[in-house]
Amino acid sequence: MSKGRFRVRAGVRDWLIAVGVAAVLLVTGVSGQHSATGLDLLGYVLLAVGGLGLAAGRRAPVAVLAVTGLCAVGYQAAGFDVAAVAFLFAVYAAMRAGHRLITVVTSVAVLASLPLAALVSGLHDTGEAFAQARGALQIAWLIAAGAAGEALRQAEQRADEAERTREETARRRADEERLHIARELHDSLTHQISVIKVQSEAAVHVARKRGEPVPEALLAIREAGREASRELRATLEALRDDDTTPPHGLDHIPELVERAGKTGVQATLTIQGRQHGVPAAVGRTLYRIVQESLTNIARHADATTASVHIDYRPDAVALQIDDNGKATPDTNPVPGIGLLGMRERVTALGGRLRAAPRDEGGFTVRAELPVERAS
Questions:
Q1: Helical H segments across 137-215, by residue range
Q2: Mind giving me the DSSP string for 318-367?
Q3: Contact between 214 and 204 (Cβ < 8 Å)
Q4: Which of 90, 99, 124, 187 could tie 129 with a disulfide, CB 3.0–4.6 Å?
Q5: Does the predicted model carry a pTM greater than 0.85?
Q6: pLDDT tens across 28-50, in order?
Q7: Contact yes or no for 312/274 (Cβ under 8 A)
Q8: Rounded to 5 degrees, what angle do the CA atoms 332, 336, 339 make?
Q9: What SS3 state is found at 305?
Q10: Could you tell me which residues come within 8 angstroms of residue 146 by beta carbon, excluding any fewer than 6 positions away?
């Protein structure tokens, strides 16, 4: 947005310079001496075109350089002894844009043509024509304009290079921080999760070997240990490799719904609309929302049923999770880490999230993620 505003200001500034230069040329042409060859109208037109053409100098510097040079030679031939101010501006713009060779060639051509144009006007003899050409376009002016444009171009290049260097440094630091986080997660969580997983597996195995019924809580602990181990492994791989392919997405939501039944919540999944491919970030975010919502329902909602509804739309994917828990419209839920994480994920993708108690009781989480913006 800020760049857009800058472009508007730059365009206005270009037009102000062009109009100002055209006005100066016309005023000089009107007040100065010029031949009465019947070419006055052509001379005034060339003066105006030469000045106003500078408005396009930022977009087409080479074309403006040629136009202003031809106009300078043209109004000299028409008998207007006016300095080639517009051409100097064009030389500056072309050098700033990096067109050094064509700028030098065009400048030499204009310098060679101005004496001939002064002779054609009929106002001067040969000596005066060359003197008039020098007055109209001093070589020193050309050198100064070209040098200024080249200096500014090099300064802009150095600024761009410095910006690229800063971006590369920031990316390198982000990579280092990501690897540091991966090491910390590995050192602090891997062992504990492995212990939980191994112990729960062993307990289930021993109970079944003895012919004893396996408690549902123990099965849930075992499954949670397996899932936590998979999630941690996938997270560490993503942190270490910065891979954009997510470990889980929309295709894995049915597994979440099925596992929710082992926690005592009867969950159902409905899918509406024509299924289509969605960006990896969208699928990963929707999976995380369903995962966090079902976890919260099992832990805090005191609910017996939950429903997950996915609606595929042409330009978005909508998700809604409802439960019949103890939440009521007059309760104010305190947002925890899970809900804040949902909101941050959805906002980062340009979507909308609403999490609040339902009028009929229970809690609802609604998310809508645009497909095009996320891609």
A1: 139-209
A2: EEEEEE-SS--TT--PPP-HHHHHHHHHHHHTT-EEEEEE-TTSSEEEEE
A3: yes
A4: 124
A5: no
A6: 777 765 555 556 788 888 888 88
A7: yes
A8: 90
A9: strand
A10: 91, 92, 95, 100, 103, 104, 107
